[in-house]
Amino acid sequence: MTVAPAPTVTLDNRFARELPELAVAWRAEGAPDPRLLVLNEPLARDLGLDPAALAAPEGLRLLTGAAVPAGATPVAQGYAGHQFGGYSPRLGDGRALLLGELVDAAGRARDLHLKGSGRTPWARGGDGLAAVGPMLREYVVSEAMHALGIPTTRSLAVVATGRGVRRETVLPGAVLARVAASHLRVGSFQYAGASGDTELLRRLADHAIARHYPEAAQAENPHLALFDAVLAAQASLVASWMLVGFVHGVMNTDNMTISGETIDYGPCAFMEGFDVAAVYSSIDEGGRYAYGNQPLVAEWNLARLAEALLPLFSDDQERAVELAMSSLGAYRPLHAAAWLNGMRAKLGLPAGLDDAVAAPLVNDLLELLQAARADFTSFFRDLARAARGQAEPVRGWFLDLAGIDSWLERWRALEPDADAMDRVNPVYIPRNERVEEALAAATAGDLAPLDQLLQVLARPYDERAGLERYAEPAAEGSGPYRRFCGT
């Protein structure tokens, strides 16, 4: 019998080395009976890792943190954060570990990070563990986001631990191996800023510049240029979420990355019936993180980042505030432009069309969608059919037929490109019913529905025969969908 070799992994400990004040050296609890549930083989190869070796016993020890490569320094990262608007000065990785950094095929540094690997000094009373369902949810949604072309952390693997996790009942436990450009967050800067150690703040900012925005180092004010770059990345990111109906659900400052990647898929969901007030988090009773509030919440989070960076913008406090406010003022125009450009693409509008024509067309459509609660994803695929002369599927979403007919007449006059629309409007998203179905089966030991769902979501724009159920909207009367934080 051939035994797969142990995975050859070289992990740098640059974060721990350069920012020891934000890192607590720690080891994972390990897994008593590890079993691979899902492995992202293309991502593994892109990271220079052998999928067969990762799937072997020693590879599973690496993926659960029990085996640490020579020279690596696993750490739990420290950060602060505003959670639903309330400030927590000490959060950190309560159940996660940064194993280290590796280099992918494109020469880019990537974090290898574990979630659900056991309690750390930041755990604050939690057990440090995670259940199979939520870890597979992050795998499914993050890989779907990647396939949709939206910047995101990636999922390398989910490994069942063989350990029970007590929640409302005892659930099978798992560890997620996650890959990211980095795990630097707005909360990282809040933590460093609150320490009063300006030199630590400066080292953190310089680390972020070198890791993500090296061109900022050449700017007249490098740390202001860093803030501008993060702001632009987040303005684009939130617009890209909204263009596919994604609701993050927990946009705390510790869940906003410096890199501009989506992170921490907790009470998230893809909106089905269009509603700017859509909320899926069970604890977001006030709708702080509702679909339509996401741009303003991102701006609020960026203001907290600016506050933390003020000592680096200028030695003069008034001047620092003035610079921060000026930079922050660019957020709304950047987000609005990214959103409108994305909507123009979704509608197949011709290049060069004046915004004075495009913007009212978009806004009027959103009002119609809101009134009808039309399925956001299905509507745009049906709209491409309308561009080809088949209007009835689109009309079927509306009671206000006069309203949609009038809008369609205006839109058709612009000669929309149906093929271009199909390239940006997905057929398949992680629909809540299909995701829950796959996770329930996987938790019970049947991985086939999960594997099928992942194959479907890997090609979201390609309509395929036999996969109709993955494109079906939620059944009428199925009730509000709710997800839970702390999963």
Structure description:
The protein has 18 helices and eleven strands. It is of the alpha+beta class. Among the domains are: 14-180, no CATH class; 186-339, no CATH class. 49% of the residues are buried.
Keywords:
five-stranded antiparallel sheet, alpha+beta, 11 strands, 43% helix, globular, two-stranded antiparallel ribbon, 487 residues, 18 helices
Concise summary:
The chain has 487 residues and is of the alpha+beta class. Helices cover 43% and strands 12% of the residues.
Structural class: alpha+beta
SSE string, helices as H and strands as E: HEEHHHEEEEEHEEHHHEEHHHHHHHHHH
Helix content: 40-55%
- Write down the overall geometry: globular
Please count the helical segments: 18
Q: Main beta sheet: strand number and arrangement?
A: 5 strands, antiparallel
| Mean pLDDT across every amino acid position | 94
N- to C-terminal distance: 40 Å
Q: What is the radius of gyration computed over CA atoms, rounded to a whole number of angstroms? A: 23 Å
Tell me the fraction of residues in β-strands, as a range: 5-15%
Strand order, main sheet: write it out.
2-8-9-7-6
Q: What ranges have pLDDT less than 50 throughout 5 or more consecutive residues?
A: none
Total beta-strand segments: 11
How would you name the oligomeric state of the polypeptide chains in this document?
single chain
